[in-house]
Amino acid sequence: MTDHPLPFRDPRLPFAARVDDLLGRLTPEERIAMLHQFAPAVERLGVGPFRTGQEALHGVAWMGPATVFPQAVGLGATWNGELVRRVGEAVGDEVRAKRATDDRVGLNVWAPTVNLLRHPLWGRGEEGYSEDPALTSAIAVAYTRGLRGDHPDYWRTAPVLKHWLAHNNETDRDTASSSVRPRVLHEYDLRAFRDAVRAGAVAGVMPAYNLVNGRPNHVSPLLEQQLRGWTDQPLVVCSDAGAPSNLVDSEHYFDTHEEATAASLKAGVDSFTDHGQDSSVMTGRIRGALDKGLLTQDDIDTAVRRLLALRFALGEFDPELDPYAATDAFDTPGHRALAQEAAEQAVVLLKNDGLLPLAPEEGRTVAVVGLLADACKLDWYSGTLIHRSTPLDGIRERYGAGRVLYAEGTDRVLLACDGGRLRVPENTAPADGGTRGAEGALDPALLAGRTDLPPLTCDATGTELSVVDWGDGVLTFRTDEGLYLSVADDGYVRASAEEPGGWVVQETFRREAVEGHAGGHRLLHIGTGGYVSVAADGAKVAAGGEKISAAGATVFETVTVERGEDAVARVAEAADTVIVVAGNDPHINGRETEDRTTLALPAQQDRLWRAARAANPRTVLALTSAYPYAVPDAAAELPALLWTAHGGQAAGTALARVLAGDVSPAGRLPQTWYAADTDLPGLFDYDVIGSRQTYLYFEGTPLYPFGHGLGYSDFGYTDIEAGPDGDQLRISLTVTNEGPVPADEVAQIYVRAADAASRDLPGRKLVAHRRLHLAPGASERLEFLVPVEELGHWSVAHGRWAVEPGTYDILAGASSADIRLTASVTLDGLPSGPRPVLEHGLEAAAYDTQQGTEIVDRTKRDGDAVTPAADGTPGELLFRACDFGDGAARLTLAVSGGGSVTVEADGRTAEVPVPATGGPYDYTTAEAGFTPRGVHDVRVTLHGTVRLAHLGFTRAGAAQ
What Gene Ontology terms for biological process does this UniProt record contain (predicted)? Predict the structure, then answer.
C-alpha cells in the first residue's frame, strides 16, 4: 500500500485520527477562517475551499436546471417513506452530478425542513412535511437516508435539518419569541428533529431566526442538552443567513457582535452564514472575541473539528475511495419517472360523489379552467424546470386535445390613464430570441429585471391585460405573450417576467381608491412601496432614487373587457365535465418572509368555481396549493374535490392520470383542514396543548381531518391484535381491497390513554402507518412494532418521560377520524405520583395550565422563567397534585423584575411582594410563611413585571 506523507491523507486511519492530525496542522488564523460558510483553501496543505449550504428541499435548488419533485408538504402527503427515500437518493445524486461540473454546488445540503405545520397560516408551510411529529419524523428519516446514502463511511450528501426550534411564523420572525412549555417542547417540537438524528442520517441542524422562551435559537442551550445527546456523531450546526448579526442588530440580545459570536460558538454553532461570501466580518468578530477572552482556542477547535469530520465523511480527502465521487445521474429517465410517481402519490382526493374517475370516452368533452389550469408553479426552493407539465397539458394529452376546452378565468382589463390607456410596447420579446427552452418556456432569469426593454407608456389604444387578485388585494398583470408587469432596479415598469419571483417579488401591485375620484385608483408597487406614475419617459415607481409618493401617482380607471367568470361559464356550459384548477402562486401571499392572513380561497377564484358550478353541476375543484384552504361551500356543493401541493415538473401529467382513473389516488392530508379562520389559534400561540391545536388536541369539527384521503376502491380492516412485546408494542391487522380496481391504501395506527381527557393528553396520536398496494380482492397482514415509550408523555411533575400504568386504546383506520378497528392494552408499572415539592420545589415553567403568561429566559445562557404576557394584566399558573407531606412552613421564590406573587394551596394564601430588582436577569429571593399540608393544586398569580423562575418550600420542622 502506498505510504501517505501526512496522516490526514492516509485512508487507513480512522476519520477521527485524521481530523485531529489536520486540525493540529492548521494555524489559529486558518482555524478561524474555517468557521465561516465560505471557508478558504489552505494551499500549503493542499486543502481546498469548502462551502456549507446547498438548498435541496425537493430537488437541487438555486443552481439552474434540475429534476423538480413535489413540494415538501406534497412529499408528506404521500405518507410513503420508501418513495421519499428514493427521492432523496435522486436529489443527492443530482447534487453530486452538478458538483462535478460546478464547484458552486455544495455537498452539505440544507434540507429537509422538519418544522411542524402547527399553524396553516405559516408562510413556509410548503417546506414542512406535516403537523404531526411522528409523520414528520418518518418522512424526514426517509429523505435524509436517501440524501446520505448507505455507505458506512462516506456520505452522498450531508443533510442539515431546518429550523431549530419551534419556528412557525414569518411575521417578526427574527424578533418574536415562541413560548414553549416543557410538555410541548418534549412531546412535539423536539420530536420532529430527534428521530432523524437518531437514525444516523443527519449531519447537523440549522437554528431558526426566532427566539424560544425569550432566548435566540442561535444561543439555545438545547443544542448541547438535547440535540447532541441523541447521537455520537459530530453534528455540525450551521447558522441561518444573517442570524449571527441579528443577535445584536434586530434582537438587541447582546451589546456587541463579539459577545454574540462568542455566545453562539459556545452554545454549539459551528458555521457562520453571514455577510455572504465576505468572511472577513465574521472572522474579525471571532478574532475579537478571542482577544477579549470571550472565547478560548478550545472553543474554536471544537467547532473546526466537527466541520472537518463533515468534510472527511463527504470524501473530500479520499476521492479514489468515495463511492459517490463519480456519480453522474442527472435528469435520468428514472428521475423523471420518479418525479411523476411522487406527484401521483401526493394527490389527495378530498370528496367524490361518484363523478371520478372520469375515464376518457368518445364524445366526452372536458373543460379545464382556472388561474392555475395552465400553470406549473415553482417556489423559492425549486430548481429550474427542465420538463414542464401543467394540468391543461396533462389533460389534453390524456383526453385528446380536440376534446378539451380551456378558459383561464382572468379578468381582461384596460387601464385608463391621463386621457389614454396603459400600453405595453410590442418589442418585449427577448432581444436575442434565444431564451426560450426546448419546450417553449422563457427563462425568467434572462427576463426579470431587464432594463434594456422599453417601459410601459400611455396612448389612445392601450393594451389588454390579464389581471389576477391573489387575495388581500395583491394583483398581478400579464400580457397576452405571457409576460408579467415587473419593476427593475431602475424603477421602470416593463413586461419582463415570465413568473412572479425573487426574494422581493417585483410583479405584484395593489389598487388604492382615490378619494373624490369615483372609480379612480392608484397602483402601489408592493415590492418597492412606490406608486406607478406614467410620464413622458414611461411608467415608473421611482425616480432619481426616490420612491414615487401617492401624491405623484397616476390615477387609473379599470375598464373591464371581460370578466373571468363569464369566460369560465361559457366553456363550462359547453363541456361534459369541468375541472377547475385553483390555488396559490408560491411566491405570493404565503412564502418565506410572509404569512397568510386567511384560510379562505381568494375571492376571484371563489367566483370561478361558483360560475362553473352554476353552468355545469359536473364540476370538479382541483386545489393546487402549498397549504390548506377553508372551502366549506365547495365541499358542500361540488361532487368532487382534490388537493395536491405544487407537484413539480410532472404535476399536470399526474393530475390527469388520477382524474382519468389510471391511478387510484391515495395521498393523505398531512395536516388538519379547518373549516374557518375562527377555528385557528393565534399565529404566535405555540402551546398546542393549551389552545387545542392540531388533530392531537382540536375539539372542533374540521373540514377535512388529518390523515384523510379517498380513492377509487374500498378497503376493509379486520382481525386486529395488540400486546406488549418487551419494550415494544406489537400490533397486527389485515387490510383487504374490497373494491374493483388495484389501489393503494394508507393504514394508520393511533393510540390514546383511556384517561386522556382528564390528563390533557392527545385524543389520538399517530404512532405508525403503512402505505400498501393491493389488487382487487387481495389482502395483506400488516404488523407494526411501536416502542412503548410512544405511549408516554413528558411528566412536568418529575421532569422526565413517563409511561404511566393503565389502559391504552389502539386505533386503526384510514384517517384520524375514520377508525375501523380498536383494541386495548394494559401496561404495568409504578405511577409517577404527585409532585415532590418539598424535595425539589416547582420550576415555574413546568406548570400544568396557564393563563395570560409567557415563558422567558432566566439568564442569557440557560433556564426559563415565567412572566405576565400583557402589561397590567396578571398571569396565572396552575400546578396540579403537589405533595406537601406533613406540611410546609415557608415559601421561597427566585424572582426578578418587580410586582408581587400570590401563591394559593390548601386554602392558604401567601402574598409575596417583589421590589424592583433593577433588571430582568437580576434575581433575588423573596420569602413568606406558607403552611399547606397533603396533596393539593397550587395556583400562582403573577403581578407587574415579575419574572418567576422557581418556587421552593421549606418542610415544617426543618431548621430555618
Answer: arabinan catabolic process; xylan catabolic process
